[in-house]
Amino acid sequence: MMLSVHDLAVSRGGIAILERVGFVLDPGEALVLRGPNGIGKTTLLRSIAGLQPPVAGRAELPPEGAAYAGHADGLKATLSVAENLTFWARIYGQGDIAPALHAMDLEGLAERPAQNLSAGQKRRLGLARLLVTGRRLWLLDEPTVSLDTASVALFAAAIRAHLASGGAALMATHIDLGLEEARILDLTPFRATLPAPGQGGGFDEAFA
Amino acid sequence: MLALLLRDLRLATRAGGGFGLSLAFFLIVTVLVPFGVGPEGGTLSRIAPGILWVGALLACLLSLDRIFALDREDGSLDLLATAPIPLEGVVAVKALAHWLTTGLPLTLAAPVLGVLLHLPGPGFAWLTLSLAAGTPALSIIGTFGAALTVGLKRGGLLLSLLVLPLYIPTLIFGAEAARRGGEGLATFTPLLMQGGITLGALAILPFAAAAAIRVNLR
């Protein structure tokens, strides 16, 4: 088992948005989170990644943790593509960045400063970072934003290779990646029932 | 850890990295003071240790808000918080990188600029020594302040207000050590106090700063 989530409740800005979320992710599996804007996909992913504490429940991750990729790619504009990627590879104790550059079709751009990349190229570099983390569990928040069709196919191939090597991926995305094997979890049924006004400290906290 | 240090040093020296900003500010302050105070040597040499220390402190303050704000903006801070290195280590490395790009150049430049202010002969060594002992405290306290304000847009003013009171003990003992050294008095006590402040800050503040970042990332 790669990731198991039990009765997780998360809040954003002091307001509970999801509750009683539970699922299990096994090695080789991909799970796509669906739901309308604001349902709490990002908050759920950040809670599982350990960036914010859940209100209730727990998430059990692999001992080494997960590789998280959020809306921002964490790129330094004045460093080149290779320098950005080498930095993250060394942070995660990995050596070679060549396979990651190849998988995301960035070889021709390796020496270019990140500030001269297009939005889609930046995203590809951000996703290449996942490949140099060496982590088995990927948590992806809207990974395909600003990618064109060809790049989405590259990314889907990278996910498939990751799953085939025993990894797992949990992602929030709206577009169809062409991953038939991916399970889909709609978060709408887990929407938190709003507490009645005046109950608890929720009201004041919301305006803090 | 080493990779993070090298990246920060590299970023500081690339275009727009802010390296040299503090040094230029320090130079401007020390050049302007004789114009404002007047060229009379006795007055200048009496205020030189204090002016150099205040100048170094303000120059240090100038670059603090870059420590975490840039990493927060481009998402690196989230990724570092989920990386296999402890956040306390990230804070310590960031403080070290700040000192190497700010505190160390200021320490090395101070004796040169001391000439402009008629710093008394024996004071040069003591000024350098007191800056070398005190600027690490400025960097680590500033890193703590930057961690507290990392979630705020344009948090620079709040950062300065938070950090300045914490800088005062370092300033008092640092300038006192440099002044006493210049007048040929014993400098042991102020230097000891200053070293104590620096070591205490180094021991405690990385943990406090990491806790502040965790709260601000929520």
From TrEMBL, chain A:
Domain ABC transporter: 3-206
Molecular function (Gene Ontology), one example: ATP binding
InterPro entries: AAA+_ATPase (IPR003593), ABC_transporter-like_ATP-bd (IPR003439), ABC_transporter-like_CS (IPR017871), ABC_transptr_haem_export_CcmA (IPR005895), P-loop_NTPase (IPR027417)
Domain of life of the native organism: Bacteria
A Pfam family of this chain: ABC_tran
Keywords: ATP-binding, Cytochrome c-type biogenesis, Membrane, Nucleotide-binding, Translocase, Transport
The protein's name: Heme ABC exporter ATP-binding protein CcmA
Organism field: Albidovulum salinarum
UniProtKB/TrEMBL annotation, chain B:
Main location (coarse class): membrane
Coiled-coil ranges from the UniProt annotation: none
Compartment(s) of residence: Cell inner membrane
InterPro entries in the cross-refs: Cyt_c_biogenesis_CcmB, Cyt_c_CcmB_bac
Transmembrane segments: 12-35, 47-64, 96-119, 125-150, 157-175, 195-217
Pfam families assigned: CcmB
Keyword Transmembrane in record: yes
Membrane-topology annotation of the record: Multi-pass membrane protein
Domain of life: Bacteria
UniProt keywords, alphabetically: Cell inner membrane, Cell membrane, Cytochrome c-type biogenesis, Membrane, Transmembrane, Transmembrane helix, Transport
The keyword Transport is annotated on this UniProt entry: yes
Protein purpose: Required for the export of heme to the periplasm for the biogenesis of c-type cytochromes.
Family: Belongs to the CcmB/CycW/HelB family.
Name of the featured protein: Heme exporter protein B
Species of the source: Albidovulum salinarum
Gene behind this protein: ccmB
